């Protein structure tokens, strides 16, 4: 007689049961078990109908292993509770005969599948109370962990020996179960959160090869995880999550007891206290584990009434509330409003605050904690009853959701079949009836949750600050898919890369070594950073450029406080770093300049030259004269801070190119003046004053002359300084101090002192790189030259290119009278009458050498524009039609015509010299305008590239008109260059 099951369920559930039943019967017949069908009693058949309707997982397991149902029936496991210790006994029996790791993995998985079927069966048929289900699942996890660990330990000791302490006593791993496992409250598809520890450092003995205890237990932990977590053809045992250990994924897999204790004492955060409430020794050395838990107890439970935890709990509560508002969580029975997590929070909040003094609260299961809250009048009996009833209802709902497919979910179904299954398992005739009861229970939890540690000053409405949505990203241990989804929703175009940056930050040694206060500051800062990064045009770039700064200041977390408490400063930081990697790099290297971001008005208004010099002078006056180190730090900070202000103004477009160069040059001049005074004062203190030619003491008869960009008032970001040192003392006469030097050595040492102060590498960087090659005779000449010797050289020996360089030379710091005499000499040398044909030949020869050595390949050796293509990059400075061509033409004009037009010598910058050439009628106004526009355009492009840390080259198909015009004028002014 064919077997039939009288299906009594309605509609889609009937169809589902008939489908599962047909598949199971087919497997039963194929296994030759058809005759045993008659042994199934009527009660069992009724249960089978409910179970097949409620769980695809059970249906699949029964189909794959047709004998399973009869084994469970014969052992009476479906209709009775397991006694204490029986789960471990059953696993021991299942592991009999296991020899290889593959066999061990298979036996564990098959044991898990059969026990999972038993537990789901009893849960759906309501033969097991809610907490029996959670206890059975936790017992199964404990048994699997313990016996898998013992097997792994035996395997490892066979090869590496036994790990021992200093006294020779054998050691074992201690496995701490966290979260639901620790509280023996696992759900049907829980991860198990673990922390691995071992008592003391030492080494293994008695093996073929010795390992440190750390390495031995690391290997044991890795193999244990693989045995449980790896997915094979037989499935898995438990998903293992190790992220609650110190430093999360970036931390060691196992820790000694001392290392764990030290970490929690110095770096443990409030959320880790919250997590540690549930910790329980679930496998390994129970006695040692008890000792460890006692050592960690002071971290979890403070001996006094812990009001300090209240603010942390309020923050955690806000995290929960904000996460609830995230898309899709409202239908989550764990994470949604009024969900399981909120019940657990209520209990653990009281545990953290009062558990240090009230030891009755120092327990793990939430229902027991709630009972103690009523017993000790922390909460009214009615509130506790409502919370317990809601918790059980929610956990039953969670089990119903997970029983369907053995899947880790707490989301309510949206399809009709899924809703019908959940309603059936929960004992309701319809989804609507179930949903009404669910909402009633959740509303009770939400009401009590809102009242726990409520801030009396807090508005009823949750503050929906933009950063709120990011508060759990780095502290909530999201899965990578969840994290990248949230980052994508926030506007990141490459969320995987953004998540990698954040993970690398949290794993970095600097962050890992932060003390507790620093980590708490970081936890507060990071959500604000992410929220503001999303406001930028390119969030990915903003994050990529600022994350290194966060890592750099991790050990100086006061900077994180500064940015947290000053949102406008954080916003300016993101804007500037997004716009310029050069600025980002400077702030990362010298984070002290973050103070400059506090005042946007000041940030975008660099001071004038007089204000700059006065500000620096005032700062230096506040430092003791003998504290050279602090003086040098002040000079470096001055340069960084004002350089940042100039860059910010340039990026914002509030400062035109010419003003940018002006300010950068003024900064250098102010610094040079102070450096010269410091060096002079130090030399005079040591050696006394040098002498003039008439024997009188010199009072700073010394000047620093600037050439090139600094001389032409055209400094850019990162420019070096071309300098020449000139004095007017007697080089033979000795100084008048206690350690006299002749004048020559005094001035040489003074020059060396200046250079050292400018380019000495300190933790705050260098002031400026200095180039002294433009002094008379270059590198082979004296470092410091007397004005008379300088004059003789320029009049008698200097090459034409050195006179070209003199066009852009001017005094920057030192004795004003000596500076005036230098200017007079410069005018004399430049204003002499020259043979223009010879001058053109010399200028052309120098320009050819420069092009051949420095220009790009496409334009070396020629000025023809035929090579102007996108494929051939254009070097803004050196290529044909570029900056140097304009500078050479201007220098040629000054050398050729200033003998007749001395007004051309008034200025050292190219723009104003060109104005002079136009005003003197030497160059048509149209040509001057073209040259000035080209010069400004080239320099503006070079500035932009410098801010982007890119070389001064652009695609060759840009600036064609400017380049053609400059080449045409070159041929016109210097006709013998036509062959170039």
Automatic annotation (TrEMBL):
<feature type="domain" description="Glutamate-ammonia ligase adenylyltransferase repeated">
    <location>
        <begin position="46"/>
        <end position="291"/>
    </location>
</feature>
<feature type="domain" description="Glutamate-ammonia ligase adenylyltransferase repeated">
    <location>
        <begin position="572"/>
        <end position="823"/>
    </location>
</feature>
<protein>
    <recommendedName>
        <fullName>Bifunctional glutamine synthetase adenylyltransferase/adenylyl-removing enzyme</fullName>
        <ecNumber>2.7.7.89</ecNumber>
        <ecNumber>2.7.7.42</ecNumber>
    </recommendedName>
</protein>
<keyword id="KW-0548">Nucleotidyltransferase</keyword>
<dbReference type="GO" id="GO:0016779">
    <property type="term" value="F:nucleotidyltransferase activity"/>
</dbReference>
<dbReference type="InterPro" id="IPR023057">
    <property type="entry name" value="GlnE"/>
</dbReference>
<feature type="domain" description="PII-uridylyltransferase/Glutamine-synthetase adenylyltransferase">
    <location>
        <begin position="315"/>
        <end position="452"/>
    </location>
</feature>
<dbReference type="InterPro" id="IPR005190">
    <property type="entry name" value="GlnE_rpt_dom"/>
</dbReference>
<keyword id="KW-0460">Magnesium</keyword>
<feature type="domain" description="PII-uridylyltransferase/Glutamine-synthetase adenylyltransferase">
    <location>
        <begin position="873"/>
        <end position="949"/>
    </location>
</feature>
<keyword id="KW-0547">Nucleotide-binding</keyword>
<keyword id="KW-0067">ATP-binding</keyword>
<comment type="similarity">
    <text>Belongs to the GlnE family.</text>
</comment>
<dbReference type="InterPro" id="IPR043519">
    <property type="entry name" value="NT_sf"/>
</dbReference>
<dbReference type="Pfam" id="PF08335">
    <property type="entry name" value="GlnD_UR_UTase"/>
</dbReference>
<feature type="region of interest" description="Adenylyl removase">
    <location>
        <begin position="1"/>
        <end position="457"/>
    </location>
</feature>
<keyword id="KW-0511">Multifunctional enzyme</keyword>
<dbReference type="Pfam" id="PF03710">
    <property type="entry name" value="GlnE"/>
</dbReference>
<dbReference type="InterPro" id="IPR013546">
    <property type="entry name" value="PII_UdlTrfase/GS_AdlTrfase"/>
</dbReference>
<keyword id="KW-0808">Transferase</keyword>
<feature type="region of interest" description="Adenylyl transferase">
    <location>
        <begin position="465"/>
        <end position="980"/>
    </location>
</feature>
<comment type="function">
    <text>Involved in the regulation of glutamine synthetase GlnA, a key enzyme in the process to assimilate ammonia. When cellular nitrogen levels are high, the C-terminal adenylyl transferase (AT) inactivates GlnA by covalent transfer of an adenylyl group from ATP to specific tyrosine residue of GlnA, thus reducing its activity. Conversely, when nitrogen levels are low, the N-terminal adenylyl removase (AR) activates GlnA by removing the adenylyl group by phosphorolysis, increasing its activity.</text>
</comment>
């Amino acid at each position: 007689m064919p077997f039939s099951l009288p299906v009594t369920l309605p509609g889609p559930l009937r169809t589902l049961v008939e489908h599962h039943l047909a598949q199971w019967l087919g497997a039963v017949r194929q296994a030759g078990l058809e005759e045993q069908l008659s042994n199934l009693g009527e009660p069992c058949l009724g249960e089978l109908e409910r179970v097949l309707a409620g769980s695809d997982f059970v249906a699949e397991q029964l189909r794959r292993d047709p004998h399973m149902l009869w084994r469970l029936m014969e052992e009476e496991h479906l209709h009775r509770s397991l006694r204490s210790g029986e789960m471990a006994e059953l696993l021991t029996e299942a592991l009999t005969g296991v020899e290889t790791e593959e066999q061990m993995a298979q036996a564990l998985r098959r044991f898990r599948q059969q026990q999972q079927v038993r537990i789901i069966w009893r849960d759906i048929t309501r033969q097991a109370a809610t907490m029996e289900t959670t206890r059975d699942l936790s017992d199964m996890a404990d048994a699997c962990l313990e016996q898998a660990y013992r097997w792994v330990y035996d395997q490892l000791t066979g090869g590496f020996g036994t790990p021992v302490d200093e006294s020779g006593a054998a050691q074992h791993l201690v496995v701490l179960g966290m979260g639901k496992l620790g509280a023996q409250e696992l759900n049907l598809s829980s991860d198990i959160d673990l922390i691995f520890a071992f008592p003391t450092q030492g080494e293994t003995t008695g093996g073929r090869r010795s390992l440190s205890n750390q390495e031995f237990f690391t290997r044991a932990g890795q193999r244990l995880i693989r045995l449980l977590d790896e997915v094979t053809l037989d499935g898995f045992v438990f998903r293992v999550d190790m992220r609650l250990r110190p430093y999360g994924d970036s931390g060691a897999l196992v820790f000694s007891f001392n290392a764990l204790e030290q970490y929690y004492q110095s770096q443990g955060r409030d959320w880790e206290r919250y997590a540690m409430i549930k910790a329980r020794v679930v496998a390994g050395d129970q006695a040692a584990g008890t000792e460890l838990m006692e050592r960690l107890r002071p971290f979890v439970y403070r001996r006094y009434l812990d009001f300090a935890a209240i603010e942390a709990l309020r923050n955690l509560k806000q995290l929960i509330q904000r996460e609830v508002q995230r898309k899709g969580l409202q239908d989550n029975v764990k994470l949604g409003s009024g969900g399981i997590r909120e019940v657990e929070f209520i209990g653990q909040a009281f545990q953290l605050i009062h558990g240090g003094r009230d030891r009755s609260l120092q327990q793990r299961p939430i229902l027991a904690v709630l009972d103690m809250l009523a017993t000790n009048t922390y909460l009214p009996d009615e509130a506790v009853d409502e919370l317990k009833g809601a918790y059980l209802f929610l956990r039953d709902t969670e089990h119903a959701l997970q029983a369907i497919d053995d899947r880790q979910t707490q989301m309510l179904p949206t399809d009709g079949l899924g809703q019908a299954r959940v309603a059936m398992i929960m004992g309701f005739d319809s989804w609507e009836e179930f949903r009404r009861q669910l909402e009633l229970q959740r509303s009770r939890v939400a009401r009590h949750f809102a009242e726990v540690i409520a801030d009396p000053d807090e508005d009823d409405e949750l503050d929906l600050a933009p950063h709120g949505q990011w508060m759990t990203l780095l502290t909530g241990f999201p899965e990578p898919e969840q994290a990248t989804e949230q980052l994508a929703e926030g506007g990141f175009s490459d969320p995987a890369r953004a998540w990698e940056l954040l993970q690398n930050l949290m794993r970095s040694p600097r962050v890992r070594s932060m003390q507790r206060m620093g980590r708490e500051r970081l936890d507060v800062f990071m959500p604000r950073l992410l929220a503001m990064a999303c406001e930028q045009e390119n969030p990915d770039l903003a994050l990529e450029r600022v994350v290194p700064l966060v890592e750099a200041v991790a050990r100086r977390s006061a900077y994180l406080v500064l940015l947290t408490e000053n949102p406008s400063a954080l916003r300016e930081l993101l804007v500037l770093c997004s716009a310029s990697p050069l600025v980002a790099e400077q702030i990362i290297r010298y984070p002290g300049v973050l103070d400059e971001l506090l005042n946007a008005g000041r940030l975008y208004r660099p001071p004038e030259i007089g204000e700059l010099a006065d500000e620096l002078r005032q700062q230096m006056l506040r430092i003791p004269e003998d504290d050279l180190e602090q003086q040098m730090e002040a000079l470096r900070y001055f340069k960084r801070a004002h350089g940042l202000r100039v860059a910010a103004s340039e990026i914002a477009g509030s400062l035109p190119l010419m003003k940018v160069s002006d300010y950068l040059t003024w900064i250098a001049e102010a610094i040079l003046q102070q450096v010269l005074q410091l060096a002079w004062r130090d030399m005079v203190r040591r050696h006394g004053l040098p002498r003039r030619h008439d024997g009188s003491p010199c009072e700073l008869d010394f000047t620093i002359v600037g050439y090139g960009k600094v001389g032409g008032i055209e400094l850019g970001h990162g420019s070096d300084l071309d300098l020449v040192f000139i004095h007017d003392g007697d080089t033979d006469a000795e100084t008048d101090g206690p350690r006299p030097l002749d004048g020559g050595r005094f001035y040489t040492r003074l020059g060396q002192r200046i250079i050292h102060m400018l380019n000495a590498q300190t933790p705050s960087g260098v002031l400026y790189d200095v180039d002294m090659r433009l002094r008379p005779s270059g590198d082979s000449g004296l470092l410091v030259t007397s004005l008379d010797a300088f004059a003789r050289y320029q009049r008698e020996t200097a090459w034409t290119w050195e006179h070209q360089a003199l066009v852009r030379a001017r005094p920057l710091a030192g004795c004003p009278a000596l500076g005036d005499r230098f200017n007079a000499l410069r005018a004399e040398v430049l204003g002499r009458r020259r043979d223009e044909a010879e001058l053109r030949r010399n200028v052309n020869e120098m320009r050819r050498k420069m092009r051949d050595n420095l220009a790009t390949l496409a334009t070396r050796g020629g000025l023809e524009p035929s090579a102007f293509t996108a494929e051939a990059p254009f070097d803004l400075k050196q290529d044909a039609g570029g900056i140097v061509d304009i500078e050479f033409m201007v220098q040629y004009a000054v050398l050729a015509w200033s003998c007749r037009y001395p007004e051309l010598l008034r200025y050292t910058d190219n723009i104003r010299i060109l104005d002079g050439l136009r005003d003197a009628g030497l160059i048509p106004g149209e040509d001057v305008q073209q040259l000035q526009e080209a010069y400004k355009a080239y320099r503006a492009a070079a500035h932009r590239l410098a801010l982007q840390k890119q070389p001064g080259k652009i695609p060759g198909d840009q600036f064609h008109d400017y380049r053609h015009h400059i080449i045409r004028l070159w041929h016109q002014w210097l006709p013998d260059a036509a062959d170039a």
